[in-house]
Amino acid sequence: MMIARDSSLNSGARLRRRTNSALMLALLLALGASYYYFDLLLPQARARNAEIGMAGGYAYGGDFYPIWLTARELLRHGRDPYTQQMTEEIQIGLFGRTMDSRRKSDPPANFRAFVYPLYTDLLAAPLVLLGFDGARLVLGLLLPFLTAGSLLLWLNAFDLPVRRSTLAIIIVLALVSYPVLEGLYAQQVGLFVGVALAAALAALARGRNLFAGMLLAVACVKPQLVWLLALWLLLWALSGWKSRKAFALSFMFTLAALFLASQIILPGWFVAWCRSITEYPTYTLPPLTQLVLGRFMGDAAGLAMLALAGAIGWSARRQEPASPEFSLAVSFVLAVTIILSPTGGAVYDQVILIPAIFWLGARRTAILEASLPVRVEWFAAVIVISWQWFAAGAVALASVFFPVWARRPAVLVFPTRMAAPLPFVILALLSFFVVRLVRGKAMAVPLPEQI
């Protein structure tokens, strides 16, 4: 009996030491990633902008500035956010000047035009009461907590068991991941969309369909991140209308109310918004499918993934929220959304890959027991995900001993090199389970294990 007790105590001590070591490593990686981003990468970006005369305005909070400015002008003076005059005022705020067609380095005249649906300004109305510096301060304090909260919501939505020590490590590393740091610095509305989606799915898992529909409608401030999931969830609701109609009706009524309020405040806004959307690709990078694979192969891959998303959506349409099949469908649909998003440069939007990463992490044993190609994909995914922290830490450390070399542009972008491949690696792993489920194989989707 005494031997067994001693063995248990030793095992517990070893587990605590491993946990403490893992947490210490996570904190060191967080320190290195933060130093790399704020003290190495951002100064280089500001210097590059200064060289082309585009560093005279707001950098921190730059993605929220167009929303704050247009919301203030709309609600106070009834001005149209989609006009060229408003675009020029946005440019002055962000760069200190308007774009000049005589400068070869300048983007087009419509660069950084307001491209959000008008109801984005309505939802941002409380921050209009503050000056932009005050709004930045509020968001700077709020966004990290909301982002950390979204991690808890996704775990809750997918009913994934997680150790407290592991959760602490996940939160630390997530907050210093490259997509989240980009979103926090730019104060990107995509982070709010990630929180709203996580809250909506967590509400569905708890049977709060009415609230879930409202949250999904609010997430539509960035429709390009929501459209595919919204279509599938409406199909899911139709497949069990009697018990799920509250979700569909609340989503449609909330979205209709936002559209109607926008139309009352600015008649004809929808046409102007559509025009701004069609002009958006003229000054942004193409979708990731085309950016990574080229136009022909990229379009073909995008269509294939879209078809597979339709197949998993149809197969999982009758599943209950928090079931492995339902959460697999959500994860896959959001991952496909990322590679089809209109601009491949929006790395901050990759926060909606979090549920897919959680889903796969909770099936690691099943993956490691699968065929060799699947195991290779798993190790590739681990490398691609962890690359950002280890590479950033390495560059940060190198900057202490070799400061000139570490500040070279080619070296500084090294930790960001896996941002583009990440969604494809995640999709490749998810596809293994998706194909099995679509084919109706027994035990196609294993139950989650503790993360």
* Number of helical regions: 22
Q: Care to count the β-strands?
A: 0
Strand content: under 5%
Mean pLDDT: 93
Give the low-pLDDT segments.
Answer: none
Radius of gyration (Å): 23 Å
Describe the global form. Answer: globular
Kindly give the count of domains: 1
- Helix/strand/pairing category: mainly alpha
Fraction of residues in helix: over 70%
**Major β-sheet, in short?**
none
SSE order, as H and E?
HHHHHHHHHHHHHHHHHHHHHH
What is the end-to-end distance?
Answer: 31 Å
What does this structure look like?
The structure is a single chain. The chain has 451 residues and is mostly helical. The protein has one domain (52-438). It has 22 helices and no strands. It has helices at 2-51, 65-77, 84-95, 119-123, 125-128, 132-157, 164-175, 178-186, 189-205, 209-218, 227-238, 241-265, 269-279, 288-293, 295-315, 324-340, 354-361, 364-368, 372-401, 403-406, 409-412, 422-438. α1 (2-51) packs parallel to α7 (164-175) and α15 (295-315) runs antiparallel to α16 (324-340). The chain starts with a helix and ends in a 13-residue tail after the last helix. The mean pLDDT is 93.
